[in-house]
Write a structure and sequence with these properties.
Layout: H1 2-17, E1 21-23, E2 40-42, E3 60-63, E4 77-80, E5 84-90, E6 95-99, E7 102-105, E8 108-111, H2 124-128, H3 134-145, E9 149-153, E10 158-162, E11 174-178, E12 182-189
Parallel strand pairs: 1-8
Antiparallel strand pairs: 2-3, 3-12, 4-5, 4-12, 5-10, 6-7, 6-9, 7-8, 10-11
């Protein structure tokens, strides 16, 4: 009996370890500081990209020519619409699903710093130890860290975008986005630049 129990535990452990993942070893978590003249400077309308330090709140540098000869990549922060910025998490024709605040692409877990829900720079574990009052903390936990989105297929001429702070990501920063609507790639922040 012990042998069967041990074999069952071993198989369960192996199954858990063999979950398919998609990694992003290119995208940096930190936002680059760029010098004046490095791109078009914009002030985003939303703070949905806030990772706890208000990184992309103002003086965001955008390379408006970047995608003229390059394809959009997972992890890119794109500029679109009326001064909006958000991160690309799924590419054209991919299937995206969110289960308990975790993004899955074509059934594989997105194992990147932006692959799961964040609130003000905190993942679920760090958020639970934050100093936010309990009723509000529980509401955000239920709404954000347990978020479910049934699987959808991204269109052939679209990407799926999500802001890094899911509690601040609304209809404009948590959705499919036409490739034609992308105006450029965010390349950094110019804190020394004057307001646009």
């Amino acid at each position: 009996m012990k042998q069967w129990l041990l074999a069952g535990l071993l198989l369960g452990s192996l199954a858990a370890c063999s979950e398919k993942t998609i990694e992003d070893k290119v995208t940096e978590e930190s936002i680059a500081e760029v010098s004046e003249g490095s791109g078009t400077i914009v002030n985003p309308l939303s703070d949905a990209m806030d990772r706890g330090q208000h990184e992309l709140e103002k003086n965001v540098a955008v390379d408006t020519a970047y995608y003229k000869n390059r394809a959009v990549a997972r992890g890119d922060i794109v500029y679109y619409g009326d001064r909006s910025v958000s991160r690309v998490v799924a590419l054209p024709n991919e299937k995206i699903k969110i289960k308990n605040g975790q993004i899955y692409i074509n059934g594989a877990k997105l194992a990147a710093f932006y692959g799961a829900a964040h609130v003000r720079g905190h993942d679920d574990k760090a958020f639970q130890t934050s100093d936010m009052e309990e009723p509000a903390k529980q509401n955000l936990t239920d709404e954000i860290f347990k978020k479910q989105v049934n699987e959808i297929t991204v269109g052939g001429d679209e990407v799926f975008i999500i802001g890094d702070d899911w509690s601040r990501s609304g209809a404009s920063t948590f959705r499919s986005l036409s490739l034609q609507d992308i105006k450029g790639k965010v390349i950094g922040v110019c804190t020394a630049c004057g307001n646009p």
